[in-house]
Amino acid sequence: MELGLLERAPRATQQPVVENAMNAICRSLHAALLLTAVCSAISSSPAAAQSVEDVLTTAWEASWQQTGYPVAVQKWQGPIRVAFSGRAVERHKQHALRELKIVAQVAGLEVAESDEQSANFRVEFIDDEAAEPPHCRANFKSSRFVITSARILAKERSAYGCMQHEAMHAMGFNGHPMLNSVLSYFGRIKALTEVDRLLLKTVYSGDVTPGSSPFALLALLARRLESSAPDAQKNHVRNAAAVFFSRIVTEMEAFAAGTGEPPTVLFRSSKSTGPGTARGQTAMQYFLGVAYLNGELVAADKGKAVEWLTKAAASEHVRARSLLASLEK
Fold it and tell me: CB atoms < 10 A from the CB of 65, how many?
């Protein structure tokens, strides 16, 4: 596990005079972005690559389809066989295959080139003049939350920059987090980050089954972060995760009840829709029901579980209806 992803615990100030002076300088130069970041690092606890909240936020945002709804974990469970096509295939194929292997190998999956007939993953290079997609696009098909096939369309001018981004989508990550991920719409990240690697390793571990809820994934990530932390940091990681979970559950209960909003990142991407948000409310009712049933992020409470599942079932959520039926037996 990458210890660089953990936020270090606060330490006692050793040089108050020097730090006070530095803080004063920082305050006077707060308009400069870089110096503002330095000031923040001095005045608060020193941090490593990403904080606990950063990691959990990225995982949470990656679990949302951009039109407005959260999705259960979907993942491959076998080797990936890739077929390439398009007029520029010989120019871009080796680069694309190398990029796909980087992503898949972090997840522990084998990738090999294949012919069209036996392929379960296709990459097509299209002319820059084509109307769609603007740059690149990925989609996948699944059965019982196991990904069975995927496809990437890539314009020639974008093929070198977008392949790892689209490969992450093809591996089952639907969302576009604000930061810390190659999936982000909002930064120029073209290669896997440490957070991306952690997400891939966690989702494709034996601890995560296809169909798991985003809440279950968050809970597992937090446990892994805590277990990999030095003893002196474990309480800090646990407390940071608890604060994050409390906020997320409160926000999602409001969203599921029709009085709150989905994650802000969905509005930043300008892709959320009314039908997508309505679907998101029903999906969140189901996920909250499962969370209260299994004690994921919250204390187990069968009464609340049934309440949320009943609301989802009323909107014809198939899994909610099935789970309710099993609870009544």
Answer: 18
Using CA of residue 128, residue 133, residue 136, residue 138, what is the dihedral sign?
negative
pTM: 0.83
Q: Are residues 138 and 216 in the same domain?
A: no
Contact 304, 281 (CB under 8 A): no
User: What residue numbers bound the domain in which 56 lies?
Assistant: 50-71+177-329
Model pLDDT for residues 3-44, shown as the tens digit of each residue: 445 443 443 434 444 444 444 434 333 323 322 332 333 233
Pairing of strands 146-155, 136-143: antiparallel
CA atoms within 13 Å, Cβ hemisphere of 168: 27
Contact at 8 Å (CB) between 155 and 163?
no
For the chain, what is the domain count?
A: 2
Instruction: Name every residue whose Cβ is closer than 8 Å to that of residue 294 and which is 6 or more positions away in sequence.
Output: 216, 300
Residues 59, 190 within the same domain:
yes
> Are 252 and 323 found together in one domain?
yes
Q: Percent of the chain, pLDDT > 90? A: 75
